[in-house]
């Protein structure tokens, strides 16, 4: 009877799952259009120079800023998410991300204002990271804290689906723009369209999120007066092991994804000689497999366990690292297609259960902060420097060094997942 009293009706649950999905879709769309522009546009317009590789590395450096901003967003938004509530905090996070993205679409270039242009770009990128740092954890909790028993991973995969959907929308945007506009017009103004158009998606996301209710588990925390004064201090004092293992448990996921996206796009359209019109559709095909395997892996996680599913997938990622070079660099078009299909399928397998798995070790009173911090610290370790490091490794030691980089990250994740199995919590996730 108690569970029935706090469980939202079916229509409300559908609205909640849609709110968690559309929010992360918008956030990741905004995040990925920057990632694509960091390869195709920003080196030319914001970091002009004679050396194309140096300009690309400078662009990747601004790309990494968001990952260092994300833990800041996790602390700020996590504090209010654990103190005030999931709903209001998610609205604020979406606004922060949306305004930063639209601002990028309105920035002057280096040719217009000189060095001020890359500085403004870096500031807006920081704002993107700040918003996403608060978005992911809240969206996962919105889903998992409304989930019935035995379906935590299934509910938790809905915000995870926002990643492939956002990526597909962002990639399609650039495919359409590059196919319909001459290169001069694309560089002059066409690249701005996805950034400015994201404002329409933000309006839809805000409308949906303002209509949802607070999660039952957070309501119980209020009723029992279990909220803590400063969630981040409680997290660091009482949950250090969960924070450490959770961070490393997400590391391979981030390394894999940003090797498959930003690094692969940059390397494929420079060193391998593909045009962006040739390469983006191949990458898009792989992302479809990413989206397909997210729900499949969530079903597996609810049946066989989140930790076990992630452990098996991480072993497979390590093995994939060993064949990365011959597939991507030596197999021609067939090898490149196989590289994307296998890599993105593994990405879906690790990403589907990850949200529920990272939230599980933390009690409700610090869960928003804890889940957000582990996810975003994993982003710093696994993603912030991945395109830069992989480009440097490939340039100096070949693609086999990039594969070794991925395999080492997967081994660290395997060790962390084994450590997470020791954690017990009084939380319900």
From TrEMBL:
Tell me which InterPro entries the record gives: MFS (IPR011701), MFS_dom (IPR020846), MFS_trans_sf (IPR036259)
This protein's GO cellular component annotations are: plasma membrane
Any idea which UniProt keywords this protein has? Answer: Cell membrane, Membrane, Transmembrane, Transmembrane helix, Transport
For this UniProt entry, the molecular function terms from Gene Ontology, in alphabetical order, are: transmembrane transporter activity
* Pfam families listed in its UniProt record: MFS_1
Which CDD domains did the record assign?
A: MFS_ShiA_like (cd17369)
UniProt keyword Cell membrane present: yes
Lineage top rank: taxon: Bacteria
Q: What is this protein called?
A: Metabolite-proton symporter
